[in-house]
Amino acid sequence: MPAFTVLNPATEEPVAEIALTSAEATDAAVARAVAAQPAWRKVAPGERAALLRAFADVVDAHVEELAALEVAGSGHPVGQARWEAGNVRDVLRYYSAAPERLSGKQIPVPGGLDVTFQEPVGVVGLIVPWNFPMPILGWGLAPALAAGNPVIAKPAERTPLTALRIAELALEAGLPEGVFQVLAGKGSVVGQRLVDHPDVRKIVFTGSSEVGRDIMAGCARQVKRLTMELGGKSANIVFADCDLERAAATAPVAAFDNAGQDCCARSRILVQREVFDRFLELFEPAVKAVAVGDPASPDTEMGPLISAEHRARVASYVPPGAPVAFRGSAPDGAGYWYPPTVLAPVRLDDPAYTEEVFGPVVAVVPFDDEAHAVAMANDTPYGLSGSVWTRDVGRAIRVARAVETGNLSVNSHASVRYWTPFGGFKQSGLGRELGPDALDAFTETKNVFIATEE
Ligand code: TAP
Fold first, then answer.
1. Minimal CA–CA distance to 166: which of 148, 192, 184?
2. Ligand 1 atom with least separation from CA of 132
3. Does residue 192 have its Cβ closer than 6 Å to ligand 1?
4. How confident is the model at residue 454 (pLDDT cuts 50, 70, 90)?
5. Which end of the chain, N or C, is surrounded by fewer C-beta atoms within 10 Å?
6. SS3 380
7. pTM, entire model
8. Distance linking the first and last C-alpha atoms of the chain
9. Is residue 184 lining ligand 1, measured as CB closer than 6 Å?
10. What percent of the chain has pLDDT over 70?
């Protein structure tokens, strides 16, 4: 059976050898999920809630183990990896409250009564990228299970370790066999088969816009339900009237979190012209202070990139002669290291400014006034995230409403909370995850008319 060697991105040493699932084995997993479905949808709401809470408790008991796997297999700093495992626990707990609240409506109509039911959509195929293997798994998994659907998850080929372990923990917590399966393997084999298989009724895909477009076309053939979270090129808009010290001090987190391999990365910083130079003066020491190094150390803030291939791709955005204003540090030797890099001044047609780099490279550009800032922020096919820094509350709201993006933060860079909706405008995605309405994407509304006329 073909296998993939998971390498530690910080050392380039092998961590595990993982067998790759074939298309035939994917079909067998779909058959197991289909077989598990009738019993799972019949589990009483209170019991399903209890199972999800038990699952969350088992994950909680294994946070350290899961974090260590993500440090070794994905190069995430351990503090971040602990948060990620804790996020899976929290999302399971949040959606464990959902089954008991999945009630329909009663609608009086002439001659009778309509009642609605939220029926589970069926087998869900969950296709996960390599940048946040645990949280993105949890965001699809928890509401899908809460709604009564079996789930087959396909982690990215490079980062399957935590998903495989979480599937074992689900069984330990008492989830029935076949309700949650994880298939390690290639997107072109397992992912494609989940998209094409008629018994998979819904795809949740997080990944690149390029692959997302193909998946959308594949789902269209069967009118298959689809949620997509895709790429981003988000703007951090800094107005002259803001707390400039705070905006500059926090901008590294917004751009370099997870080594910039973050769909929400604010990889464009738009700064009002009159404070442009001052912003760069404040930003430079903040970038140089980012602790880049051994992901296993609790003090590390930024680890390596995921692979040598990906590092070469990131580096291609900073060719010789690129307008590098300043850089942070990165270790020498083994590991896929790349230093935090700030480009300024940048031409507006520079690919580092227009394309998703997905690495620790940020472009800083000036703008003149509010209308100019909004026009620049919106001049991209993406619309996932962004930040606005200003002390003028009216402007904060005007700009937040005008920027075409799904998630914005004012005087902050935090844009993801499991109890608020998350998703993209334009080519950044389709549909919303998280928040109180997430089960809508995993259920179908059934309307039943009951005649009352004699
Ligand atoms: P992709 O190359 O698009 O891969 C994402 C997932 O899709 C992987 O599991 C991949 O499997 C699978 N896949 C590849 N080809 C497929 C196919 N033909 N059919 C079905 N599945 C297929 O993205 P990536 O490089 O892993 O992740 C980076 C991208 O994800 C960035 O653009 C980033 O912005 C985006 N992202 C978005 C969000 C949100 S929430 N909007 C969050 C995180 C990441 P293999 O890896 O095995 O090929």
1. 184
2. 43
3. yes
4. confident
5. C
6. coil
7. 0.97
8. 66
9. no
10. 100
In whole angstroms, what is the distance from residue 450 CA to residue 454 CA? 12
Written as six digits, the tokens of 218 are 């594949």
Regarding beta strands 14-19 and 3-7, do their DSSP bridges make them parallel or antiparallel, or are they unpaired? antiparallel
Q: Point out the ligand 1 atom lying closest to the alpha carbon of residue 310.
A: 25
The bridge status of strand 123-127 relative to strand 200-206 is parallel
Q: Which atom from ligand 1 is nearest to the alpha carbon of 384?
A: 41
- In the reported structure, the alpha carbon of residue 70 is separated from the centroid of ligand 1 by a whole-number distance in angstroms of 18
Contact (Cβ atoms closer than 8 angstroms) between residue 366 and residue 276: yes
Nearest residue (CA) to ligand 1, atom 19: 192
For ligand 1, whether the C-beta of 187 sits within 6 Å is yes
Q: Is 322 helix (H, G, I), strand (E, B) or coil?
A: coil
CB of 208 shorter than 6 A to ligand 1? yes
With a cut of 80, say whether residue 362 has pLDDT above it.
yes
- 78 pLDDT higher than 90: yes
Condensed to tens digits (0 to 9), the pLDDT of residues 85-125 reads 999 999 999 999 999 999 999 999 999 999 999 999 999 99
Q: Whose CA is nearest to atom 15 of ligand 1?
A: 187
Q: What is the pairing mode between strands 123-127 and 151-154?
A: parallel
Give CA–CA dist 116/47, Å, rounded: 22
How far is 83 from 108, CA to CA, in rounded Å?
A: 47
Task: Answer positive or negative: Cα dihedral of 206, 208, 213, 217.
Answer: negative
Could you give the residue numbers annotated as active site?
A: 229, 263
Residue 1 has pLDDT above 80, yes or no: no
Q: What average pLDDT does this structure show over 231-250?
A: 98
Q: Is the CB of 189 under 6 A from ligand 1?
A: no
